[in-house]
Model the fold of this input.
Amino acid sequence: MCVITLGDAKFKYKQRIDCWIGILIAFNLFMYYIYYHNNSNFINSASRNLEKNRTIFLIRTYYGHLDSKNPFNLKFTLNSLKSLQNPNWIALLLCTDSEPINFENYAEHDSRILTYPRHEKTPYDEWTAGYDITDSALDYLENNNFSANFIVITNGDNYYSPQFLNELPSPNNVDIVAVDYWSRYERAGYDLQPLNMNSTICHKAMIRVGLVDLGGVLLNYQRLQR
Done:
């Protein structure tokens, strides 16, 4: 014969409540793990896709581009990048001057703006325009596993319209994309003839010597590395 007192009933009832609470807590923890695991994979995957699909701007610059009195300066260039409607880009600042440049004020407040960590004492020359150092910076990007669809090799005195990255083709289909550009020169490349600094003209881009500006060319980054 089993006799259950009122106290025993209350105790067993409390045990059942505690048991159900434990089950609910365990279930919630399990669901939280599933949610966190799936979203963590999604976030990591999305982050990798963003990195893969982005555009790299390799910006060669020298002290002449830091002069705020010059309307075409480095701050002018970076502000145009920050205004791009497609925000999926990074910029690597590269000093081509004989003396190093402190880019700290230019790179702060925007994690997309990076600086090339080495300085190579090669004086800026109008004809070479820092191409030797450019090759070193490209090696740096590859050795540090930077990924992107396209790369733009440009200078610290160019301006980009907000729509510049809006309608890029698939990198599976193209090696080079050239865009029309406005210039204060009559003709790019050879035989530069400066216009009045207050006037510019639009050049229709063609993949021909003197008919394209390097700052208006997007190179397939993956194929460039090969």
Notes: The chain has five helices and eight strands.
